[in-house]
Amino acid sequence: MDIILNLIGFANFNLVWQIILQIAILALGFVFLVKGADWFVDGAASIATKFGIPQLIIGLTIVAMGTSAPEAAVSITAAAGGNADITIGNVVGSNILNIFVILGLTALVNPVVVQKSSLIVDIPVVIGITAMIFVMGLDGSISRFDAVIMLIVLASYLLYLIWDAKRSKALGLETNEDSEEIKNLSLPKSLIFTVIGLALIVVGSNCVVEGATFIAEKAGLSERFIGLTIVALGTSLPELFTSVTAAMKKNSDIAVGNILGSNIFNILFVVGLSGLIIPVPFQSAFRFDTIVSGIAAILLLLFCLPKKRLSRVAGIIFLICYAVYFYMIW
Questions:
Q1: Angle 254-38-272 (CA atoms, 0-180°, nearest 5)?
Q2: Which residues neighbour 54 within 8 Å (Cβ) at sequence distance 6 or greater?
Q3: Tens of pLDDT along 70-107?
Q4: Helix residue spans in the chain (DSSP H)
Q5: Pick from 68, 61, 59, 81: which is nearest to 34 by CA?
Q6: pLDDT confidence bin for 173, thresholds 50/70/90
Q7: Cβ contacts of residue 183 below 8 Å, gap of 6+?
Q8: In the chain, what is the greatest distance between 2 CA atoms, to the nearest angstrom?
Q9: Pairwise CA distance, residues 104 & 281, whole Å
Q10: Apex CA 16: angle with CA 10 and CA 17, to 5°?
Q11: Cα dihedral sign, 286-21-30-190
């Protein structure tokens, strides 16, 4: 009897250490993802600048994809590994977090200014593509055909932004308030940053998926819940740091562009690319989460329309909305 109890105690002790180890791997994965995305963006943007690629194009492609790289890496890794619940959960969860939590916190730090172009183009685009992924998921999966449509919509959106930027420049309406300074690195250093950054993103994504899946299984939590909360928050850390820092520097309008761009890329680029590689199952439970994501974007539009700003009161309401949502999916 004593031998059996000792074995049970040893087994429990073993399990505790396994869980601690997986939590450490999960945390390390998040660090790799955030730092990897940062280095990848710095290196790739520096290389593009040296080859004469306009800063506008760099911002719309390399930087935007770089900030979505954690979501892309985790989602693709999860889908390829048969953990597709994390794929959709990560994207939808990140989009909900981006608006309710990140913009909510940002508005508390400093009321968020919203540009007219965001009100008439970017926010409606987020609402539209959220409705699109909801409809595409009604048959139970995001097929390769659906993925191709998403990537075509993304290309069309980028072409529109490029056209609009050129039109604004021609009319003398262009401002550099939102442009980020690109680090002037030597070509060898730029290549090293790009390669190491990409490697960290890949390794980090594997760590996150492995750790999150193990914890979900042992704690009895669904992959859907893990993807919508822990993984979504971890992959949204670049957006969180960028937006809050921008608000503290009184550049809160950058925060809105950062979040809207991230939400657009999360759906069109991350889900589109994942679905192109392997069809992504879209379980019925995600319909509710996608609806919440759409409601978040609609509330953002409604709160910002009157005065073209997101107030501290709106920020508090957003945080309360997320608390209610979290309670509902717990």
A1: 80
A2: none
A3: 777 777 777 777 666 677 888 999 999 999 998 999 89
A4: 2-50, 55-58, 64-67, 69-80, 84-97, 104-109, 116-117, 123-136, 144-170, 187-219, 223-226, 232-235, 237-248, 252-265, 272-277, 285-304, 312-329
A5: 68
A6: low
A7: 42, 45, 46
A8: 86
A9: 31
A10: 90
A11: negative
Task: Name the β-bridge partners of 113.
Answer: 309
Give the domain ranges of the chain.
2-329
Torsion on CA atoms 41, 182, 264, 99, rounded to nearest 10: 100
Tokens standing for residue 204: 């980090």
What single letter denotes the amino acid at residue 147? A
Let me know: does 47 contact 190? Beta carbons within 8 Å: yes
Contact call for residues 191 and 85 (beta carbons, < 8 A):
no
Residue 180: φ, ψ to 5°: -95, 145
C-beta pairs of 291-296 under 8 Å, 24+ apart in sequence: 291/134, 292/96, 292/325, 293/92, 293/95, 293/96, 293/99, 293/130, 294/127, 294/130, 294/131, 294/134, 296/95, 296/96, 296/99, 296/100, 296/321
Contacts (Cβ under 8 Å, ≥6 apart) of 24: none
DSSP secondary structure of 74-112: HHHHHHHTT-HHHHHHHHHHHHHHIIIIIIHHHHHHSPE
CATH 3.30.70.20 fits 2-329, yes or no: no
Can you give the pTM of this predicted structure?
A: 0.79
φ/ψ (deg, to 5) at 308? 55, 40
The pLDDT score that the predictor gives to residue 87 is 78
Q: What is the rounded distance in angstroms from the CA atom of residue 59 to the CA atom of residue 43?
A: 13
Tokens found for residue 20: 């601690």
